[in-house]
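Duplicate of #3305? Posting structure anyway:
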């Protein structure tokens, strides 16, 4: 996932402000009918027994999210998830690079999956769509307005982060992370954990932008690996680059290796 849009900013291109409750779109006064999100209500602590009357029924809603996600995405071609900040402005270098990456992936025959929001996500979706590729957005219910960007061809809005994150991993052959915040870091380290523990295989993680990611990569090498908390081979799970062609090469080579193994 990605950084989230600043709710104090006006919606892009004069669009009417909106928010989602799962797949339900809310505009106008309807946006304020529910103050909390589904995730908040799930994780909220209550009295010692109140949960008995609510949580078991949530299982059906959670099940429905997985069923809807699997059903909508089952026919995807090979795909790559692109992450980065929702706060990245149009016309900035990072936005332009994300657009180039989306276009390059589309030309290589990959669908592009993002969190469906603005910023880096919008740029990657835009690049993929303009290059004739499939542009996918997996949105999330948030306490402030954020709809799917206009470049998404196939969009799903989720209530639960864990259901959404499952879709990112299940239907992607690689992750490319551009500069972003907590959401991007969350997706990055979850992917690294799954690769390290062999839950997913042949799954490259590309960090695009050495000036932004270099400090993190150095810290992982010197502090995390230096303390023996990861093994030296784990360092090879991350590829830092500033070159779009290099990023696409890493993705392509990993997918070719996966195909050869299957």
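Output from current build:
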């Amino acid at each position: 996932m990605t950084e989230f849009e600043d709710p104090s900013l006006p919606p892009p291109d004069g669009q009417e402000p909106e928010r989602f409750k799962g797949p339900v779109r809310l505009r106008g006064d309807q946006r304020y009918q529910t103050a909390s999100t589904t995730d908040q209500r799930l994780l909220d602590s209550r009295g010692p027994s109140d949960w008995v009357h609510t949580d078991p029924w949530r299982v059906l809603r959670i099940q429905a999210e997985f069923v809807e996600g699997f059903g909508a995405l089952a026919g995807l071609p090979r795909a790559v998830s692109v992450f980065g900040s929702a706060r990245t402005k149009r016309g900035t270098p990072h936005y332009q690079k994300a657009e180039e990456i989306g276009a390059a992936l589309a030309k290589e025959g990959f669908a592009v999956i993002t969190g469906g929001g603005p910023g880096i996500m919008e740029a990657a979706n835009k690049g993929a769509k303009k290059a004739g590729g499939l542009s996918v957005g997996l949105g999330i219910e948030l306490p402030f307005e954020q709809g799917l960007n206009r470049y998404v061809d196939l969009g799903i809005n989720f209530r639960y982060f864990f259901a959404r994150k499952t879709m990112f991993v299940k239907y992607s052959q690689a992750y490319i992370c551009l500069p972003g915040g907590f959401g991007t870091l969350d997706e990055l380290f979850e992917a690294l954990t799954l690769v390290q523990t062999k839950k997913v295989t042949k799954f490259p993680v590309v960090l695009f932008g050495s000036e932004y990611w270099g400090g993190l990569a150095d810290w992982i090498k010197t502090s995390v690996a230096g303390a023996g908390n990861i093994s030296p081979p784990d360092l090879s799970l991350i590829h830092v680059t500033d070159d779009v062609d290099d990023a696409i090469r890493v993705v392509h080579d990993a997918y070719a290796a996966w195909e050869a193994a299957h």
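Confirmed duplicate; merging threads. The longest strand covers residues 135-140. The two ends are 29 Å apart (CA to CA).
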